[in-house]
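Here is one chain, start to finish.
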Amino acid sequence: MTARIHSIWLLPTASDEVLLTGIVKELSGRFGTPIFAPHLTVLGDSEMTADALAHAIETAAQEVSAFAEAVNAVETSEAYFRSFYARFPVATPLIRLKQALDPQGLEGFMPHVSLLYGPVEAAAKAQAAREIGERLTGRSIRFDRLCVVTSGQEVAIADWRVVVTAPLGEG
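Its structure:
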């Protein structure tokens, strides 16, 4: 039996989650790509137990208040899980969460919320990125909770499940 893989996600508030989920569904319908919950990955593909990660997010969530950050840009890449995404600045609350939950990954940290997974023809993807960028660039997204999720590159997207959630501080 393989180890259970978990990730730590930072999730947007309910209203911003509705907005971003709508975009994920719009792009999925347009390009035939998977639907998934929009999130900002703080730690991916960890073999730590869900209990250990739950304790870690509860501790980190007490130290960082809910916050909003503006989308810097909507960008694309060839990476499957970062094919099309909203990029955020490496702001203080994000740095604090990353230091607390994945200090080894801080150097290459690129905060983003993916909006499309998978390969899409480059010109069509670039056009969609321009359209979505006009709607999202500069818009603030508020984040209010961390969660441990059974997810990872080796876990089918349809099988991703939230295990535990910890609200960020009220600040």
